[in-house]
Structure of N-acyl amino acid synthase FeeM catalytic core domain-containing protein:
Amino acid sequence: MYQSYYDAGLAVDTPSGMRLTPFHLVPTTEVLVAKLDDTVTSTLSMIGDGYLGLPMQSMYPREIKELRDQGLRLAEIGSLADRRDSPVRFIETFAELGRLLVQVAHSRGIDGFVVATHPKHARLYKRVMGFRQIGELSDCPYANGNPAVALVLKFDEHAGTSLHERYFGNPCPPSDLVQYRWDRDTRSYFRRALQRDKTIATLAGIQGYYNWAAITGNLTV
């Protein structure tokens, strides 16, 4: 994923050679991958709204607030990448990952997705996944300052449509919806990588999540 982002000018050079954000360390984030044999070909992240909020609220605070005020529980899609050169294969994989992603999100009580994506990729989200635009062009701080637009997908908006049937008509096996949790060593490894890359100056926000979760009983590690 890092190489795809770096080649596209969406990421800077890092010592770890990985694309990581503080949001990858919190338990409300899940990473989905597609494999061909034993090789990972595609990946994306689902960042659930939690203590750290959502990455794109730094760009679109009004739009995110309006969605939250509607009572929606949101997750942001990010870090989408594919290592292959075939657009056709990528679109097919993206559509299938999207089906799994929606069912995973729905099983977690999530009502819809938001995404901040490059305008040329926005067409893919709209055409393949049914997103619609809610925010104007803005510079994306976590994509090396490249332009982005805000999109939303509310699951219930598509009830009774062919898109809703594609998402929910063929349920994924329950085993595919089980959340995989990083163990302590894995989490520590990625935390050290973030520190080396100087992408976070402090882990106070992460520690704050655990403090808040322990107090409120919302700890999900």
The longest strand covers residues 39-48. The CA atoms of residues 50 and 173 lie 27 Å apart. Residues 5-11, 199-205 have pLDDT under 50 and may be disordered.
